Amino acid sequence: MGFTVVLVVLCILCALIQWSQRKDQGQAGMPGGNVSGEFKRQQAAYMVAYCCAVTADWLQGPYVYALYEHYKFSKQEIGILFIAGFGSSAVFGTFVGGFADKYGRKLSCQIYCVTYALSCVTKHSSSFWWLLLGRILGGISTSILFSCFESWLVGNHNAFFFPADWLNQTFSIATVGNAITAIASGWLGGFVRDTFDSLVAPFDLAIVFLIASSITIAWKWQENKGDAGMGGMVLPSGKNDDRNKLKVALERMRRDPKIAVLGMIQSLFEGAMYIFVFMWTPKLEAFFKPLPHGRVFGCFMACMMLGSSSLKYLSSWQPPVRYLRELYIISGIMMAIPALGLQEGYSTVSCFFVFEWCCGLYFPSIGIVKSKYVPEEVRATIYNIFRIPLNVIVVAVLANLGSISDNVVFAMCSVFLFLAAVLQHSFIRMPDFVSGWRS
Asked: Domain of 155?
């Protein structure tokens, strides 16, 4: 009952904030005339495809482990399957990014729909090797989902010469949309699971959303590549075409250390976040019996929406590159408190709610920062390079979960987040690298 009330209150707060922001936007108006109308069309095209894509991802999450258990795999075998997913994402991610920058982000997002659908199909088999192939395909797919969609968005935004402030709005809406689809996916997944009495049913439903995303991308999106400059103009062929995208990306990072620092910050924060995804259930199950998983998850997503909705207010106070430092400190404190081993459930879950609020604010904020500092020509490649240490961190921790206590794991997450704050402070103090690729 308690979590239901909290969920209702959080959802009402989210609705009120969204209504207030839309009212303010309507009174202020968006400058740009016809460009504003085109912006809304481009934004809608992105949001439909993106929300369908992330819905397919969310639908699978709660049932992967349960399906492997249903197929009678041991914990060790299940661990291998999970590590294979993160490992393939780390190994193939850089190639995925280079492919997207060279041949097109739109094409890569369509490939995501195909590879993730094939991954879902493998769930119909109880063969370990087929499921391993599915995890590898899933790892490649998530690399595309968390890099190429955003790369296409930023490239398309620049191609139309839309104001930078409008990109902030799209990032915020995308994070809210992601949270809403997560809540809806939990309900939809449970509904088809119970209706068809099958753990594979949510994966089949995910294929439907992947098809919808692919159709939207093919119908509404324009292609953009790493060799396209502002306004969508393709740069003269020559050295950009002849160079390996990975080498170009590494050279850009060597010449501009702020890019490398930004990648380390992302890896530390998101590494802590992914570890938290694995750890919150056993931590809360020790305090709440039975634990209403669905309602707690709904509360998390509502907190995430509140965080995203805070972007407008905080960015009017100071730019994301500055307040992110304080955000990482707050996040570190929220992970440090559960690490103390306090035997009090409500203080622990409250810390988790605040951490999810931080996650909701983090994603649009880091997207804004990356859109400024990552060069367009190798954007998808660099985004995937950022994910390599992230996947290494997650795999290293997951591989040793059996030998370390929950409190130590949360302490590690706290350390990662405080390190991110230190790096963000250094990032702020570092001079900007003046170059033709940064606007």
From this structure: 43-222
Q: Which residues contact 64 (CB under 8 A, 6 or more apart)?
A: 82
Residue 158 sits in the same domain as residue 302: no
Residue 381 · residue 98 · CB < 8 Å: yes
pLDDT-flagged residues of the chain (< 70): 1, 22-35, 227-243, 433-439
Give the per-residue pLDDT at 296: 86
Helix axes 320-339 and 345-373, enclosed angle (nearest 10): 150
Residues 266 and 409 in one domain: yes
Amino acid at 105: R
Domain boundary among the residues 190, 222, 254 is at 222
Same domain, 416 and 328: yes
- The encoded tokens of residue 11 equal 């959802």
62 domain-assigned = yes
Q: Is residue 67 within 8 Å of 123, Cβ to Cβ?
A: yes
The total number of residues shown for the chain amounts to 439
CATH of the domain at 322: 1.20.1250.20
Give the CA count within 13 Å in the CB-facing half-sphere of 276: 30
- Radius of gyration for the alpha carbons in the chain, expressed in angstroms and rounded: 21
Fill in the amino acid letter for 90.
A
Determine, yes or no, domain membership for 231.
no
Inter-residue contact 4 to 296 (CB < 8 Å): no
Distance in Å from the first CA to the final CA of the chain = 51
| 63 and 173 inside one domain | yes
**257 plus 151 within the same structural domain:** no
Contact 379, 101 (CB under 8 A): yes
Tell me what pLDDT residue 433 has. 66
- Alpha helices, DSSP H only, in 340-378? 345-373
**Surface-to-core class of residue 171, CB atoms within 10 Å of its CB (0-12 exposed, 13-18 middle, 19+ buried):** buried
- Taking the C-alpha atoms of residue 420 and residue 266, their distance in angstroms, rounded to an integer, is 8
Query: What pLDDT, on the 0 to 100 scale, is given for residue 7?
Result: 83
Q: With 0.70 as the threshold, say if the pTM is over it.
A: yes
In 3D space, the residue among 204, 178, 209 whose CA is nearest the CA of residue 52 turns out to be 209
Q: Within this chain, do residues 140 and 254 fall inside the same structural domain, yes or no? A: no
Q: What is the DSSP string of 355-424?
A: HHHHHHHHHHHHHHHHHHHS-GGGHHHHHHHHHHHHHHHHHHHHTTGGGS-HHHHHHHHHHHHHHHHHHH
Indicate if 212 and 70 belong to the same structural domain: yes
Q: Are residues 180 and 299 in the same domain?
A: no
Phi then psi for residue 81, to 5 deg, are -65, -45
The number of beta carbons lying within 10 Å of the beta carbon of residue 247 is 12
Amino acid at 286: A
